[in-house]
Amino acid sequence: MRWLVTFLVAFVAMTFAACNIRGFFISQTDDPVWNGPTEEQQAGGGEQSLGAKLFNKNCASCHQTTGKGIAGSIPPLAGSALANSEDVTKPIRIVLHGFRGAIIRNGVKYNGVMQPWHSVFSDDEIAAILTHVRTSWGNTGGEVKPEDVARVREATKNRTTQYTEAELEQPL
Q1: How far apart are CA 73 and CA 97, in angstroms?
Q2: Which residues partner with 99 through β-bridges?
């Protein structure tokens, strides 16, 4: 009888060991990894530009500090045709008044909502954030000037809703 107990204990131990080796049990190291701003970046530490500090504090929770967005939910800014475009009015309009609805970027469909920031950021701050976006992660869109933001803000001052893709195609 003693040999039977020993056999069963050994059998159970080997079964659990085999299951663990095959990955049937989830280990503590399988937790998701946060790619948002570090506490230092959120506090504005380090040698960052104003645009990088504001982006990391206010935008990176969705668009990530890498500019890659969140697959299927938030479109990437890294490599974005909009960020690299010569036309600065579209990204300014999006930041000022937000965005809603379906879009397709790099073959991936997104259907979300971005809040408007017109009452949160000054023209200088929006210009700094967009300059950061347009010159980071390999983007080559270049600088956005505060006077560009002021001009778009004035031209769209009566807007009360977020932009859709079709509305962004309309000239100012």
Answers
A1: 19
A2: 114, 163
CA atoms of 166 and 164, how far apart (whole Å) = 5
- Between CA 70 and CA 59 the distance in angstroms is 12
Ramachandran angles phi, psi of 54, nearest 5°: -65, -40
b/e code 95-105 from CB counts within 10 Å (16+ = b): bbbbbbeebee
- The two counts, helices (H) then strands (E), for the chain are 9, 2
Whole-prediction pTM value? 0.73
Give the amino acid at 29. Answer: T
Using CA of residue 145, residue 47, residue 119, residue 111, what is the dihedral sign?
positive
Tokens for 62?
Answer: 């969705």
- Mean pLDDT split into 10-residue runs, the chain, 172 residues: 61 50 41 49 64 97 94 92 93 97 88 94 98 97 97 97 94 87
